Amino acid sequence: RFHNLQELRHSASLANKVFLQRDYSDGTTCRFQTKFPSELESRIERPLFEDTVKRLNIYYAEAEKMGGQSYLEGCLACATAYLIFLCMETRYEKVLKKIGRYIQEQNEKIYAPRGLLITDPIERGMRVIEISIYEDRGSSGSCSGSSSTSGSSAR
Amino acid sequence: MSAVMMTRKVRKWEKLPGKNTFCCDGRVMMARQKGVFYLTLFLIVGTCSLFFAFECPYLAIHLSPAIPVFAILLFFFVMAMLLRTSFSDPGVLPRALPEEATFIEMEIEATNGNVPAGQRPPPRIRNVQINGQIVKLKYCYTCKIFRPPRASHCSICDNCVDRFDHHCPWVGNCVGKRNYRYFYLFTLSLSLLTIYIFTFNIVHVVMRSVNSGFVKTLQDTPGTYPFMLVCFFTLWSVVGLTGFHTYLISLNQTTNEDIKGSWSGKNRVQNPYSHKNIINNCCEVLCGPAYPSVLDRRGLMRDDLSVPTSALSIVPGLCLQLESSYGAMFPLQKTTAPLIPNEHTPDDAKPSMADSAIAHAEKRSPSPREEKLPTLPKSSPTPTKVPPLASPETDAEASIIAKDKAL
């Protein structure tokens, strides 16, 4: 229905937002639940959605991985009294940029054509993945009233 | 993308809720009370200056010039760690925006079902399983989120902090996930510096006494003794603190958890975050990845906050359009237009995504301030069919929350 993001801006209005929560089963490392929210059932195919979230989880795991590279980075930084962080970008920051580009690409290719928009979790404190659902303006005025009916199921 | 508004560019740190002070245009973030921090600075700089002025010349000549050189390096390391701990974001979790808060409220309502009138609703707890153990996540009424595991709300700074350790007045900041390693290295290097200075103080006095007698030494170097006293007392407290934190790190615990006794006792949950291996625990805490700040203090306050950055960056043309068509016609003014159009808004007044941008810039700035009021507003921020946001008084866990806040 929506061909690109520009059309989304001009002809759509925000109807609802879904928040994907963090998955803490593995500890405090950053992971998001891959449970498919019911509000999106009519908007996007499940495999596409799960693919996106799984890929994001992989990126976050890569950023927070404890391994040779992170130890090396840590020790080197400590030896310079962490002054090196003033000029060097950490590995986490590099991966975050990669995630930002990935989300943008997913929005352009997959989500905007379906009237959805993913917000980068870093803008929400890495607590949730916010997915905004847009309705076509021309359609029957379904507005924020729809949020009450679907609130219970998205756990 | 340049600002539409007539006023100057506003950075996000200026609108952050919480009781932090910011310096250098958002680069530096500290707690409000900084008096003790200045005392720490004074003690360290003062003691080291006296050492360099009075002891080092003698020691450099009679023993080795390497002694003052190493002392200077150690001193710079201590200062670097102190400033890093004090000035960085400890891992503050931003508060939930209204839509997220509403979403969580509705989930809670759905879980609780119908509470009979007159009865208090059950406390807001979410159980998660971490590494096979059940951990309870508490709801923060100020930040309107379920706190992630190990996060806690600091009442002094009025923020939820991830992996909250404690609020340290000596460094003038909270100690949390992002600055714990700097805090630990600060205490460790300060211990070493204090031991170093104290030792060479004694060496200096002994050497002089050997040459000219003890009493004459006392008369020659009166400046030594005040700061030897400072060193002595500092030594015990700082070394003790370093030892305590070394113990915590080896068990992968926070001071907060230790004080509350979260993982101690037989009938309690065992620490699910510990790797059961001291080396792994130490590596994770000290050599783990450097977590970025999620606060984005220096970002510019965007006009349209309902549109994610990821989308905005795709349509730069939209913002230029805003400037040209609306900048001149609609100077920034307070409007009460809701962001999400609903059935109460007459059709012709329903704002477009672009129009609401200008209104929202004003709307966002008052809303975080509302959270600071002791009584939360009973009416919902978004209209219709939304349950009223609860306040601590209506919840059965009120007393526990109050205790939490006092910590």
TrEMBL record, chain A:
This protein's name: Golgin subfamily A member 7/ERF4 domain-containing protein
A GO biological process held by the record: protein targeting to membrane
Lineage: Eukaryota, Metazoa, Chordata, Craniata, Vertebrata
Similarity remark: Belongs to the ERF4 family.
Gene giving rise to this polypeptide: GOLGA7B
Keyword Membrane tagged: yes
Subcellular locations according to the entry: Golgi apparatus membrane
GO cellular component: Golgi membrane; palmitoyltransferase complex
InterPro entries xrefs: Golgin_A_7/ERF4 (IPR019383), Ras_palmitoyltransferase (IPR051371)
Automatic annotation (TrEMBL), chain B:
EC numbers: 2.3.1.225
Ranges of compositional bias, category Basic and acidic residues: 360-373
Keyword Flavoprotein: no
GO cellular component: endoplasmic reticulum membrane; Golgi membrane
Compositional bias of kind Low complexity: 374-383
InterPro entries: Palmitoyltrfase_DHHC, PFA4/ZDH16/20/ERF2-like
Protein keywords: Acyltransferase, Endoplasmic reticulum, Golgi apparatus, Lipoprotein, Membrane, Palmitate, Transferase, Transmembrane, Transmembrane helix
Pfam families on file: DHHC (PF01529)
Chief subcellular location: endoplasmic reticulum
Transmembrane segments: 36-54, 60-83, 182-207, 227-250
GO terms of molecular function: protein-cysteine S-palmitoyltransferase activity
Region of interest (Disordered), residue spans: 338-407
Major enzyme class: transferase
Topology versus the membrane: Multi-pass membrane protein
Residues annotated as domain Palmitoyltransferase DHHC: 136-260
Reaction(s) the record says it catalyses: L-cysteinyl-[protein] + hexadecanoyl-CoA = S-hexadecanoyl-L-cysteinyl-[protein] + CoA
Location(s), subcellular: Endoplasmic reticulum membrane; Golgi apparatus membrane
Note on domains (UniProt): The DHHC domain is required for palmitoyltransferase activity.
Family assignment from sequence similarity: Belongs to the DHHC palmitoyltransferase family. ERF2/ZDHHC9 subfamily.
Protein name: Palmitoyltransferase
Organism: Oncorhynchus tshawytscha (Chinook salmon)
